[in-house]
Amino acid sequence: MAVNSSGGALIGVDIAETYVHVELFDLGLNVLARAEEDVRAGESLPEQVVGHVATAVGSVVMQAGIEGARVLGVGVSVPGQVDRATGTSEYAPNWDWHDVPLLDLLTEHIAYPLYLDNPLRASAVAELWFGAARGRGNAVVVNLGTGVGAGLVLGGGLHRGVSNSAGEWGHTTMVLDGRLCRCGNHGCVETYVGARGIMLNLREVGPDSALLHPDDQTATIDALARGVAADDPVARRAVHETARYLGAGVADLVNLFNPEIVVLSSWVARTLGEPLLHEVREAVARHALPRPLAATEIVLSPIPTDPVCLGAATFALEGALQAVGQRNGKRTTPAKSTPRARSRTTAPPS
Fold first, then answer.
1. CA proximity to 241, closest of 298, 202, 299, 287
2. Number of Cβ atoms within 10 Å of the Cβ of 273
3. What's the pLDDT tens digit per position in 25-64?
4. Other C-beta atoms within 10 Å of 216: how many?
5. Under 8 Å CB-to-CB from 289, ≥6 apart: which residues?
6. In a domain, 349, yes or no
7. Domain of residue 14, CATH code
8. Helices 195-205 and 217-229 meet at what angle, rounded to 10?
9. DSSP reduced 3-state for 30
10. What string of H, E and C letters represents the secondary structure of 78-137?
11. Looking at the chain, which runs of residues are DSSP E strands?
12. Residue 230: inside a domain
């Protein structure tokens, strides 16, 4: 059945290494307001990040002009491994966080119900409900940003693993004794296809290139995209090298999970766009086994808004529905983030 979209509001929070992006949605998961806070180099203390989140959440509520009582929940996505039950960021290698009680810290500033997860799960749910994986039983959503990982949809539902740690593909080994990763290992996928890895690829093919902004990931990726569009040979070579690594890694995912679709998501994939996708498809074809490859489509995310915010908002929606069931004295089970679960809460998007 359909719900009254105006009957409440949900908030999705995308915490990343260089920004905090927040979106406020109605119950039909239509965006009503957006806010973004830049996270500068050195602003890695939990209290600093929490401050950015609180400011952005306050901003979207004010922009939307809604009463606080109408906010049913806030879904918060933070990179790394999280414990959903305790609201703890167990390990975030980008900031070297260990066992940070993130939801407790946020509760000091935000009065709404809070739900914690990570961007791999959030982006996978967004694609499953509203994006390229909708109607698919098996999908892999590759998150390409500063960090890298893979959200997994297996057997029609979100796959979390035993400890909610599934999908840490960015920290599998791409090159033995390769580049040092922030996790402490060498040669991780992330060090070759994440934003920092792409900057290293660019430095290797064009050490003196004006496209490289050493202290600014976003500016570098933007410059690469413009360079490719202008047929700059250094930009094209850097994207080609990145796609070689990414294609080999995606081929591993195709061989392992035999998905119907692989979705390239997050800001790096969105910025580099079709040129990256074309190169990745060619590289995957060189490395994947023919049978699983023939069954797999590789696409860019079609979601026009921030997929992580959208997915995080669905976690808040799930939590709100469970809370209603508990208040009514009924035993509830998690919605499991599947299209079938969605049909109990909101009509499929047209």
1. 202
2. 15
3. 999 999 999 999 999 988 999 999 999 999 999 999 999 9
4. 15
5. 254, 255
6. no
7. 3.30.420.40
8. 60
9. coil
10. CCCEEECCCCEEEEECCCCEEEECHHHHHHCCCCCCEEEECHHHHHHHHHHHHCCCCCCC
11. 9-15, 19-26, 31-38, 71-77, 81-83, 88-92, 97-100, 114-117, 139-144, 148-154, 157-159, 261-265, 297-300
12. yes
Tokens of 49: 């990040």
Rounded to whole angstroms, how far apart are CA atoms 327 and 325? 5
The runs of H, that is alpha helices, within 263-306 are 266-287, 290-294
The two tokens of residue 37 are: 């806070």
- To which residue do tokens 């296809």 refer? 193
| φ/ψ (deg, to 5) at 3 | -110, 165
The number of domains in the chain is 2
Task: Give tens-digit pLDDT for 218-275.
Answer: 999 999 999 999 999 999 999 999 999 999 999 999 999 999 999 999 999 999 999 9
Question: Which residue range is the domain that position 111 belongs to?
Answer: 5-122+305-342
Residue with tokens 């690594």: 245
Question: Does residue 330 share a domain with residue 261?
Answer: no
Collapsing DSSP to helix, strand or coil, 185 comes out as: coil
Domain co-membership, 81 together with 157: no
Asked if 41 contacts 215 with a C-beta cutoff of 8 angstroms, the reply is yes
CA distances in angstroms from 262 to 70, 138, 156, 324, listed in the order given: 36, 9, 14, 35
* Sheet arrangement for strand 88-92: 81-83, 88-92, 97-100
